[in-house]
Amino acid sequence: MSAMLAAEPGAATLDAAAAAMATALAQVTVEVRSGPRGPGRRGAAGAPVGAGVVWHPDGLILTNAHVARGDVSVVLGDGRARPARLVARDPERDLAALVVEASGLPAAPIGESCALRVGEVVLAVGNPFGLARALSAGLVHAVDGRVIQADLRLAPGNSGGPLADARGRVVGLNAMIVGGLAIAVPSEVARAFIMDQLRAREGRRG
Amino acid sequence: MDALLSLSNDLAAAVEQTAPSILAVHARHRLPSTGIHWRPGIVVTAEHTVRAEDGITVTAADGRSLPATLAGRDRGTDLAVLRVPDLGTPAATLGDDSTLRVGYMVLALGHGPRASWGVISALGPRWRTWRGGDVDRLIRLDLVMYPGFSGGPLVDASGRVVGLNTSGLARESRLAVPATTVARVTDDLLRQGHVSRGYLGLGMQTVGLPEPLRARLGLPGEMGLIVVTVQAGGPAERAGILLGDVLVALDDAPVAELEDVQARLGSDRIGTTVTALVIRAGARVEARITVGEQPRRRT
């Protein structure tokens, strides 16, 4: 009964709704690995260092700059491992863009981080302590424009993973833990980061 | 509607409903604490965060900075009451803490507003704090108390303030002083500047009762309290209690620690009579003591 409900978005019970959200979020979350490529590891290299969000079906993945270092590869939501190319990195905003050879990936629905209200429920998915795609639930602690502060328990493997609102839309990328609070880069900042990269590319072409 | 979204909207609405009645209280160095606009012109906060008695200011939810005067403080319950006459913002919507149940979802709010989410992890009957205050109900919380959250409201899922959160009453766990206690202590502090407590006018120490004596006199407990000082003219002396008497029960309830005595001397007992069972010269003696009001300690 609950398994059936869990498959439906917009479920009527709280546990079913949260379970449906966790499933949907896990599909758009990748595990980011870093380190030298070992023999016979079929593209998945190194140790897990964090998480990432599938931003575009054609293989664009966003993560934190502090996660995307060295040789990077990703494990997609369906379990496939892919080497990744680091195409942009901005330590200031703690954002990085990765590209993997893939198409038709389930991309994350992006929400409006500027519309977040204090007290809204937020969910995080990542790989804390190496647990692939573990869910944390909490709420928006404070809104200050630059970052999202969430009352939510994170661990280092959450870095780069999605912070989603109660509709399942990604409103930020988890980046830091400060005084027990989760600090996320707002989706608006991530959007601006991608626009900047596109503009720079066009500038170089023109 | 989606249950998760509906919960999210309820919690955000509860924050929005409470936020106008939350203030930052500047009564210590650096880190301001949180205050609740309890009723028009009256702000309550956690007593342990009030280090200065003069020059206290508050920042209202609308950003205005206003001077506040300390109307009274009660270390026992960790509550301080401030008067802020020109506070234009609305007072809090108060709820009934007696309807709380273990597992209820609650919010702890700090000035800003900032929010922390959790559940009521335990409830208990009336208890006495380590600082000697009477709290009408034990409310233990499973949530994170962030810096500056002491003095802030505990808010239920419908946006009602059911308590005041503080980290000053227990080292390890997060507690809330129930709204009932906040209201009672606020009334006391506004009326007389301090909280009334009953007292007997005795100084006592715990002593063990020898087994033969217990058996002979049919005493329930293994311990009693030996009287080491008797205040001249105090309630106990007037009732005939003597130095060296061993108090073993008050109103038939065994007493082994000072806390047991204090627990029976709330402000509601002032003026009433308690029956003290004491051992004097190896015999049971009963004395009827009219509970007095504790003289205010000079600070």
Over the alpha carbons, how many angstroms does the gyration radius of chain A reach? Answer: 16 Å
Largest beta sheet of chain A, briefly?
A: 6 strands, antiparallel, barrel
General form of chain B = elongated
Helix content of chain A: 10-25%
- What number is the mean pLDDT of chain B? 92
The fourth-level CATH homologous superfamily of the largest domain in chain A is: Trypsin-like serine proteases
> Main beta sheet of chain B: strand number and arrangement?
7 strands, antiparallel
Unreliable runs of chain B, pLDDT <50, ≥5 residues? none
- By secondary-structure content and strand pairing, the structural class of chain A works out as alpha+beta
Number of strands of chain A: 12
**Oligomer type:** heterodimer
Per CATH, the architecture of the largest domain in chain A is Beta Barrel
CATH architecture of the domain at 198-293 in chain B: Roll
CATH class of the largest domain in chain A: Mainly Beta
Topology diagram in text:
The complex is a heterodimer of chains A (206) and B (299).
Chain A: H1 2-7, H2 14-28, E1 29-34, E2 47-56, E3 60-63, E4 72-75, E5 81-90, E6 95-100, E7 121-126, E8 134-143, E9 148-151, E10 162-165, E11 170-178, E12 181-186, H3 187-205
Antiparallel strand pairs in A: 1-2, 1-4, 2-3, 3-6, 4-5, 5-6, 7-8, 7-10, 8-9, 9-12, 10-11, 11-12
Chain B: H1 3-18, E1 22-26, E2 33-39, E3 42-46, E4 57-59, E5 65-67, E6 69-74, E7 79-83, E8 105-110, E9 114-124, E10 127-128, E11 134-135, E12 138-142, E13 153-156, E14 161-166, E15 174-178, H2 179-192, E16 198-199, E17 202-208, H3 211-217, E18 223-230, H4 235-238, E19 246-250, E20 253-254, H5 258-262, E21 273-280, E22 283-290, E23 292-293
Antiparallel strand pairs in B: 1-2, 1-4, 2-3, 3-7, 4-5, 6-7, 8-9, 8-13, 9-12, 10-11, 12-15, 13-14, 14-15, 16-23, 17-18, 18-19, 19-20, 19-21, 21-22
